[in-house]
Prior knowledge:
Layout: E1 2-3, E2 23-24, H1 39-61
Amino acid sequence: MITGTRGLLKRGSWLFNPTADVRIAVLPPIQPSTDHADPDRLRDHVRDLIARTLQQRAASASL
């Protein structure tokens, strides 16, 4: 999961903003063939995992 990329490029520019705060989180692997064979359940699981990770980051940033 990658967050903070919105501030990398300023509108109309090809130069990267060196002060942008980009964060990368490597989430646990998911085995679609064994854990979530149904595509809808897989989609929902991945969305929930991303949402929980974003909430945890927001909570820890506000401390």
